[in-house]
TrEMBL record:
Localization: Cell membrane
Annotated GO CC locations: plasma membrane
Residue span, Citrate transporter-like domain: 13-364
Topology relative to the membrane: Multi-pass membrane protein
Entry keyword DNA damage: no
Gene Ontology MF terms: arsenite transmembrane transporter activity
Keywords attached to this entry: Cell membrane, Membrane, Transmembrane, Transmembrane helix, Transport
Family per similarity comment: Belongs to the CitM (TC 2.A.11) transporter family.
Name this polypeptide is given: Na+/H+ antiporter NhaD
Transmembrane feature ranges: 26-42, 49-68, 88-121, 133-157, 177-196, 217-234, 240-258, 278-297, 303-326, 357-386, 398-421
Length: 422
């Protein structure tokens, strides 16, 4: 059974990388086979899917549709066009903008909010939005590790170490993950400037868009605030973030129907939810849950501990770069949830403070997802948006940006984390 699971898993990810147009079908087909063969018991299917992530994506997609209809993205696009001299700076500015938001909002939600701005800018400038959306996705994924509410992996770490929101800024009297990530973001932004160095098409300011409905923007801001507040409330449901996003989306729809009598906007919001991306993520949760169920992840951990021994630097180095490699192909949420107890087991064997190992896991797992288009939910969401707009994103299109961005960010975080917490 274990061999079958490994073969199916490898085949699935080869197909996911090779056939980008059929990723959802491939993931769901493999998930179905896993359940049919008993690799993952049917009774565990529902709990294996991370419904917090699924609900958050669905709710945010709906909110973003209302946000787009309000014409606020177009106004932001006009503002950025007016402040940037060329396409290069427009793309980099958007990635920085996405990064700032992503530090306080789930990175998938950030991509869904900022991508419409990029699409609008590219449409007005008559250029392809592929590079812009990819840059936004990787920047969002990077900053997701900066705060407790930035990414699900950060939420998992905080729960495991009992960290609160401000522990991400200063931990044990030292600079926390927030500042480590910011320094990495500066380095990776310089890399983006180099990658887009040839995009020197001038940007011309256009007539400003007029926004007449600010309520969707208020809902998005409220979403950020509620996600932060929820992080301080103990014993909340595991799906609290998803509940917040879906509730605000429902509020937006009710308001559109009752106050504005705008059935068209509501219908469009429901239609704009990217059900293909939701199916892809659901399938991936089940597939990775299946290989975890049969012990593949445990076997890898056992081999990992055998190789690393009790040398803290070697253990740390292996954790960071193994996490980068694995997270390039496995959703980092499931991987992080699996590895946190493994890190605890390693700590029990080698003794001492192992904060450096936990932080190294987050650095490697979160940033490593930027190596491939399927390594992080934010990347999947970004590509889903492009596909929905009729653009085909080849793996090489993504890796040409994702690989150099990831390497410079991980190397910076790897060095800083070791010197701060070793």
């Amino acid at each position: 059974m274990k061999t079958t699971a490994i073969v199916l898993f490898i085949l699935t990810y080869v197909l996911l990388l090779s056939l980008p147009k059929h990723r959802a079908k491939i993931a769901m087909a493999t998930a179905t086979i896993f359940v049919a063969l008993g690799i993952l018991p049917f009774s565990k299917v529902f709990t294996t899917v991370d419904w917090n992530v699924i609900l958050m994506i669905a709710g945010t997609m709906g909110l973003v549709s209302l946000f787009i209809d309000s014409k606020m993205p177009s106004l932001l696009a006009d503002f950025i066009i007016a402040k940037t001299p060329n396409v290069k700076w427009a793309i980099v500015s958007l990635s920085l903008f996405a990064g700032i938001i992503s530090a306080f909002v789930d990175n998938v939600a950030t991509v869904l909010m900022v991508a419409p701005v990029a699409l609008t800018i590219c449409k007005k400038l008559n250029v392809s939005p592929v590079s812009s959306i990819i840059a936004i996705s990787v920047a969002s994924n990077l900053q997701g590790a900066a705060t407790l509410v930035g990414d699900t992996t950060s939420i998992l770490l905080a729960g495991h170490l009992d960290m609160n929101f401000f522990d991400f800024f200063f931990y044990q009297g030292k600079m926390g993950l927030f500042f480590i990530v910011q320094i990495g973001a500066i380095a990776s932004t310089l890399m983006l400037l180099w990658i887009f160095r040839k995009e020197k098409q001038p940007v011309t300011a256009l007539e400003k868009t007029v926004v007449t409905d600010y309520f969707p923007s208020v809902l998005l801001i409220l979403m950020v605030l509620l996600l932060i507040v929820a992080s301080f409330i103990p014993n909340t449901p595991r799906t609290i973030n998803g509940i917040i996003c879906m509730t605000l989306f429902v509020v937006g729809m009710i308001r559109a129907l009752v106050v504005k009598h705008d059935e068209k906007t509501v219908a469009n919001a429901v239609r704009e939810i990217d059900y293909v991306t939701l199916l892809l993520l659901s399938g991936l949760f089940i597939v990775v849950g299946g290989i975890t169920e049969v012990g593949v992840i445990d076997d890898i951990a056992a081999i990992f501990i055998k190789i690393a021994g009790d040398n803290l630097f070697i253990v740390y180095t292996l954790i960071v770069w193994f996490s980068v490699l694995v997270s390039a192909f496995i959703d980092n949420i499931i991987y992080t949830a699996t590895m946190l107890p493994v890190i605890g087991g390693i700590g029990a064997l080698i003794g001492g403070d192992i904060t450096v190992l936990y932080f190294g896991l987050i650095i490697g797992a979160t940033l490593g997802g930027n190596l491939t288009p399927i390594g992080a939910s934010a990347n999947i969401a970004g590509i889903g948006i492009l596909t929905k707009q009729g653009y085909e994103v080849k793996t090489k299109d993504f890796t040409s940006i994702g690989v150099p961005f990831t390497l410079i960010a991980v190397i910076t975080g790897y060095i800083l984390t070791w010197f701060l917490f070793a």
